[in-house]
Amino acid sequence: xxxxxxxxxxxxxxxxxxxxxxxxxxGETCLVNHLQIVPSxxxxxxxxxxxxxxxxxxxxxxxxxxxxxxxxxxxxxxILTLLDDKNSYTIKDLILLMxxxxxxxxxxxxxxxxxxxxxxxxxxxxxxxSTILQRKMMDHKGKENLCNLKDVTLFLDLIYNRKLIxxxxxxxxxxxxxxxxxxxxxxxNLPENTIIANKTGDLELINHDVGIVFTEKKDxxxxxxTWDTVNDYYAKSIISCISKITYDYFMNxxx
Length: 255
Fold this sequence. Notes:
Elements: H1 2-9, E1 16-23, E2 29-32, E3 38-39, H2 44-57, E4 66-68, E5 88-90, H3 91-100, H4 104-114, H5 116-125, E6 146-147, H6 149-160, H7 167-177, E7 195-203, E8 206-214, E9 219-227, H8 232-251
Antiparallel strand pairs: 1-2, 1-9, 3-6, 4-5, 7-8, 8-9
Helix pairs in contact: 1-8, 2-4, 2-5, 3-4, 6-7
């Protein structure tokens, strides 16, 4: 069994972790601590994307609507800090930057546009029971944003099956996630041509990667959250190894 293989590999691991792997063909799952609620880091950006697109469908926002960011709105870990203050960006640009580059300025602007209540209502209405947005990015005085793998993998399952918001926007979210630029974790040891729709998340000693892996044999969800690790490099290497073990397991027919 995959769970036994993974637990044996992780028996001396110097970190805490949760794992949720789902065979999207058979529905078979491998669950380890999947209900554990932890700081979400940038995984919360999945839910911000969903809430934004829900507003687009409702006609309250337009993907083509243009936004200007002031110098005061720009925060660390953002490519937008290097660009001209007079530039304007569409709502779709902000979503893309938030997801594929995990841009914090783009994320904070979307939070400002939608509001905390709107985003948390989207989370609640879609039964993501343990997820909550409580602060903007780089706001170290605020409460932590939280999630667990039950919620995250439900999100991924719904967009895979075209059931979150509707078929059009579920398909768009999968497409955006396939453009992810951070290849340091679940993608690192997989064949280069593997299609993955994923989102990474990092804080100090917290490293996450969650996504959908598309292969010629089967599609599957791979999600791993790590915290209380010895260092970030170690955690990322563990996630990349667990991802490769999972990939090999499925490619070899589950043997």
